[in-house]
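User: Predict the full complex structure for these chains.
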Amino acid sequence: MALVPLTAADMEKNLHVWLETEFTYFKVEELAAELTLLARDEQDFILNWIRRIASTHITLAWQFGRRAPALLPRMERRLLEAWAIHTCDVFDRTGLQNALRIMEQVDSFDEAQHQHDAAGALFEDIAPILGNFVCGLSGRRLKLEEGDAAWTDGERIVLPPLIATLPDLDDNFQLAKITVALLWAQTRFGSLRIDHAAIAASYADPERALNRLYALEILRLSAHIARELPGLHRQMQRLRSQLDPALPASWQPYEVTLSTREATLDDSLALLAAAYEDADCPQWSDQGCLRPEAIAAARAARLDIEKARLRIKLAELLDEHQANQAEAPEAPDTPPELNVEPRDENGQLDFDITLDDAPIAPPDGVKQLLTSVYLDFGEIPPDYLTPAGDGEYDPNRVFDQPEDTDSVWQGTYHEKGAELYPEWDHGRQHYRKNWCVMREKPVTPVYDDFYRDTLGKHAGLVRHLRKKFEALRDENRLEKRQTQGDEIDLDALIEALADARDGSEMSDRLFMRTHRAERNIAVAFLVDMSGSTKGWINEAEREALILLCEALELLGDRYAIYGFSGTTRKRCELFRIKTFDDRYDDEVKARISGIRPQEYTRMGFALRHMTKLLNKVEAKTRVLVTLSDGRPDDYFDVYRGVYGVEDTRMALMEASRTGIHPFCITLDREARDYLPHMYGAARYIILDDVRQLPVKVTDIYRRITT
Amino acid sequence: MNARTLDPAHHLIENEPYYEAVGEEIQLFEAAYRQQIPVLLKGPTGCGKTRFMEHMAWRLKRPLITVSCHDDLTASDLVGRYLVKGGETVWVDGPLTRAVRCGGICYLDEIVEARKDTMVVIHPLADDRRTLPMEKLGQTVEAPPEFCLAISYNPGYQSVLKDLKQSTRQRFVALEFDYPSATLERRIVATESGVSEAVADNLVRFAQMTRNLKGSGLEEGASTRLLVHAGKLISDGVSPVTACKAAVAQAVTDDPDMLKAIQELSSSIF
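Assistant: Here is the predicted structure of the two-chain assembly.
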């Protein structure tokens, strides 16, 4: 039974609230009147989205409402949703003006052009698959990115957000895959080795010349694909026969010339003059487009730096090689002769490096550099093979340096060298992409007596803990009466023999086995370092950490300790106190002592980052323990309140979905009612007395890991 | 139909197991065997370590006793134990003891997986003492000159927990194995599975693509063994894409995106 449509009055009430008409004066009555004409589920769909977008920006929600009723009949709901989310993302990234422009673009939405959108391949769906696909093909590693159209600059392949040329989802995916392969082939088979601008300049109509050159290259690359990837080529022919007109007769001779195995870019260039005069120019729906400026820019940036890198690497290789030779021969008068022989066969690129005719095995990094250089030139230019002399290059400039996390802040906000994490927007019911800018920072160690004092203060407790934790350690336990085992269980055997004499059934459980209960636990502690922990709480946290470390060292569990704090989403900071690889030494103790309250409590990013770190550790059981003083909070930000609670809840759910066991310890005197909801996926405990913390934390840890 | 039951201690491999030498491993192994030095085979899974051992056992005409080590394998599993039979306790030799007694080749596959206490029994066998202490019997068995100990391990795991201790590894002559070169691998796949050279060529090319993915989502690329499996399916009439999916893609990963990506690679080739 269909639900009764909502009346205008019903809807107005909500719209007034969501769109804050008291201040914005939006005419919700008109909108409501328009919506009354729709069916109930359509109304619900639009209203739901107005509410969700309004939580991001009211004007956007209003614009959405104005447009959506008209769009609904001609646009798939899936696309309408994608459009709404995309608008919000653009707003997040670049502000209201751009978001409104995206909103308006939908007006020019042409139904005919988009009739297959419902079956379209969305970039976010195909990117993980095609990203790996491209990785598997040989040559330089290319990144896959989303952009306005399909093109490549030799370092990345850009695809549009939606490929929807065909009525079938699978075919659209195939089309995307063929496009990716053609763009990959441009790098792999040397289409990008020339200066396109210079070539185009010699023609009266540069645009026309480039189009024809690109078409010639597509012919050549298609032939390469036919040889390298015959399966893909079959799909390509099938789709081209559906979508594209046959090759013009005047172009067929070109195809024959360019299809030979030996054809290179030079052959295409040789044919360009003739093709330029040709009235026809074929175009394929899978060809993507040529961006000469992007290619030139990427190439210019790459050439010098790779030359330097390669020469430095070769110098290192040479040094290593000479050091390995047991007795170095007299220093030769001539420098050793380094030769690189590229082998481009069977679809695989490989390099033989010889030093004075003796082969040496190149490390992986050198091979990748050689591949990249080879793809740029079609050979390894001799001057690339002179090992760098001492001090010729400043390695700091040539190799990417880890960013100094503090220097980033001297200047305007930018996101260089940081990791980006999404955040759950409760109102929008969707993630905000790349929302939190997260950096890991070290804690400055403070060498004082804190460690000793803590142990002294809790001397009794430490002894007690030691005893308790020692009992948990990997002990070999003898399991008796087993069906299999290393040794015979004499008691069981005697009993069994007696049973047998007696005429009753003889048990086969006659063996003993030593069983090792292996503790294979990795645990990450996430400590609240927000300003609200100042004073007692901070001290209790630090004491608790010291006691915990003492106990964990006994158990041999792998553990890491991080602190979190932040101000706004642009400055989320995670403080390294102990990584999984650090040993519990004086420096770690000094860092624990150096934990100081910082700023606010934004929690989602910290949980997400710890989830990532924990999942990299090999362990049977992964535990994430958070230690905080309650409500997530941030500076002048929506994070305070429901938003923060929901984001934290979501991050905990994400963690437990990956198999991590989250456990939250909260210091909160008021035991607020939102806690059970926030910790939904996690187990938690609320402590109302700060002084209990050091005692409790270790005890809790013991309970949750046994 | 009755399966043949073989007694490994007296069973000699009759037919030559197919093996293509990549380098000088056969000469090296023979020299080590003559000099009574134990051998350590290193290399990724499915690159031919076990096949190499079978081939060497055939060449040297010695019985081969293979033990695949797992994380529950104890010293008693190797040496032997008392069992109860009809009210009496009977000692039963483990595979290692049997190999020592009959002068065979004992091959402990994936040794790092075994429990640490197994090393204790291997050590005296692996140095110049060449003895096997049997604690529970109070005996020590001396290995005859024909006995040979070989172990294998895969350094690719890179886990601290699964590393071979220096005290163990420094007792062995190490032979390194890797995937064979494309030409050789093509020949191996064609010979083993009976597919044509052209199909074998495509299979090898496909394997190289999956090996390119190592480190970016895949733990290991497709091994030669998997290619042989795929080849066998193909020569039995399965279509190449289906065979690659079943024998290779599903074998190397569970990740749905990665599976699809590998599928796309194989369908691009065939």
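The first strand of chain A starts at residue 121 and ends at 122.
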